[in-house]
Amino acid sequence: MFNRRLLLKSLCASPVTAVPLGTLAQNADLARRVVARADQIRNPQQAFRAQMRLTEFRNGQARDAATLVLHSKPEAGTGRFRNLARYVEPAADFGKAILMDDQAFWFYDPASSASIRISPQQRLVGQAANGDVMSVNFGLDYTPRMMGEESIKDADNIERKTWRVELTASSAAAVYLRIEYWIERDTYYPVKARFFVDSGRALKLAFYRKFSRQLGEMRPGEVVILDEVDKSVVTKLVLSGYAAQEIPDNWFNREYLPKLRDGGGAART
């Protein structure tokens, strides 16, 4: 159960202080380095598999839940991640899949063997959008600007000294117009991010928590996502079961989706 008001109260930030570096060039370089390091923490820099559990709460009560197996692989040359998420729960959605790369989102339904392209607008709502919070490539798709140092309390009410960075979309692959991002100074852990759409409206607010060592790095095991449009909705995203895995490139081709074994894994024979 989630109490949105108590969560936000525990995450109130102190006023922003001046950035200690003296020039815009130094600050820009710092912003790029900080965001790049946080990206390495959010996502392994190699092909991997993980399980993703999404639970939606409305007015503090669990309403919908889904479990997906995520296969993710950096693209040679660009470093951008291609992602294939396949549903294993609930039973009614078993075998459905979402294919995500920097060009498009595709939704696959084994009942019809059809792959449907998800529009940019559809990418911003529902479970696909909440899963997208983890695959957003901050360092490659956004231009960072250092806004200052800020002390905030994280989702566990622990004070963190952070860099506050503003990210502005700089490529066609960017889903969000702008992102406000708080990164812990000592560890480079992502702590908090607010996502804005083209209209300038805040769409969601994400808090990264429950870090544990996975594939050589301390990574967030849970993300709490507050809906900034419908204030009654909170989504909890739990990541587990990280494992390095060689993933064939053709898994990220929409024409290949019907050949994948239901629930993810090797192709059918």
Please provide a brief summary of the model.
The chain has 269 residues and is mainly beta. It contains four helices and 13 strands.
Describe the structure.
Helix content is 15%, strand content 45%. The protein has 269 residues and is mainly beta. A 13-stranded antiparallel sheet has the order 6-5-4-3-2-1-13-12-11-10-9-8-7. The C terminus is likely disordered.
Radius of gyration: 18 Å
State the secondary-structure class: mainly beta
Number of helices: 4
Q: Name the beta content range.
A: 35-45%
The strand count comes to 13
Largest pleated sheet: 13 strands, antiparallel
Distance between the termini: 43 Å
- Which percent bin holds the helix content? 10-25%
Average predicted local confidence, pLDDT: 83
Q: Low-confidence parts, pLDDT < 50 over ≥5 residues?
A: 262-269
Anisotropy-based shape: globular
- Write down the oligomeric state: single chain
Series of H and E elements: HHEEEEEEHHEEEEEEE
The side-by-side strand order for the widest beta sheet comes to 6-5-4-3-2-1-13-12-11-10-9-8-7
Give structural attributes.
single chain; disordered C terminus; 269 residues; mainly beta
Describe the secondary structure blueprint for this structure:
Elements: H1 4-10, H2 24-42, E1 48-58, E2 61-74, E3 81-89, E4 97-100, E5 105-109, E6 114-118, H3 126-135, H4 138-141, E7 142-153, E8 159-169, E9 178-184, E10 190-196, E11 202-214, E12 217-227, E13 233-244
Antiparallel strand pairs: 1-2, 1-13, 2-3, 3-4, 4-5, 5-6, 7-8, 8-9, 9-10, 10-11, 11-12, 12-13
